[in-house]
Amino acid sequence: MNTDRQAADLEAYRTIVEAAKIEILARIPKPEPLGWKLLTIVLPIILTSILGLIVFKMQSSITSRLTLTQDYYRKRLEVYGKLYDNLVVVRQRAQRALNEPIQSADLEDTVDTFNRNYSANTIFLTQDLLTAAENMWHTSSRALGEETISPETLNKIKTGADAVEKQMRIDLVGE
Prior knowledge:
Elements: H1 2-27, H2 34-97, H3 102-105, H4 107-120, H5 127-143, H6 151-173
Helix pairs in contact: 2-4, 2-6, 4-5, 5-6
């Protein structure tokens, strides 16, 4: 009987040891698979690289647009400066043509220069400025048919020049 009892105790002991072994093994953390370890290391690097590339492309696009816009407005300011210089000369020559013949006042050359200047640079002019410049040019061109400029024609030229100048101010500074 002793052997049966010992065998039963031994079997109970084995069952307890096996249960403890299973419980201990269940609590031991299992090692992560190698693929998962590589994925957790490589995935953030890949995602960061992709995000960096996207940001670089967007920044390059913005920088290119900003550069083009700056160049456009720089050229526009230059065109407006030349147009304003022509405008001043047209006013002076028209004033001079009030008292002397138009040919000696050189008004025709000045009006032609004004026309060439705004016509060649229409891409940089707003539609309102283009309209004002065309109106002034037409008024000035009609004056060239006169022997000397009448005070009414001089006022029309000055009014047209004032309209061009006012529109340039609005375009440049928003007044």
